[in-house]
Amino acid sequence: MPARKAQLTIYLEPATLGALEAFARKSGSPKSLVAEAAVASFLTGDDADRRDAATIKRLDRIIRLLDRLERNDTIALETHALFIRFWLTATPALPEQGTPAARAKGQERYERFIEALGRRVASGTRVGDEIALDLGLSDAADDLRPHD
Fold first, then answer.
1. Is 144:129 a contact under the CB 8 Å cutoff?
2. Would you kindly state where each structural domain of the chain is located, as residue ranges?
3. pTM surpassing 0.70?
């Protein structure tokens, strides 16, 4: 025979009592059973478990974002390194007499590059998106962008 339950008299705020009665009606359980379950849940730390689960879910999302950012950084660094290697191996040295003109032309190109970069950043256009579209990888363009 199960142990007899002890009786406890408690005082509840009207709103809390209303919520208890509504929940008991909805679940088809006696108020005392709902109250007992609520007290047991409070004492066993179920709420802490839920908070932990929510925190773990957020951390998992942050880890996925960091992994994606790390992958994108790796792609960007490899792209730059490959471009520099090709540029250094394919660009011949300038003759001495052409150096001042080449520097002036280089400065002009750099200024145009900075203006174009500013326009692209302001517009939100990304080279990675364009490359993915050129390769027919429209889904890959979405992967290049960090998500929440």
1. yes
2. 14-44
3. no
